[in-house]
Amino acid sequence: MPLLEPEVLRCVERLEREGADHDAGEPERRLKRLNLERPAAELVHLLLRATRRRRVLEIGTSNGLSTIWIQAALRATGGALTSVDREDAKLQEARQNLRACGLLEGATLLLGDATEIVRGLAGPFDAVFFDADRVSAPAQLELLLPRLEPDALLLSDNVLSHPAEVAAYLAACERLPGFASTVVPVGKGLHVAHRRSEGHGAGSLRAAPRPPSPGSA
Question: What's the pTM value of the predicted model, to 2 decimals?
Answer without folding.
Answer: 0.88
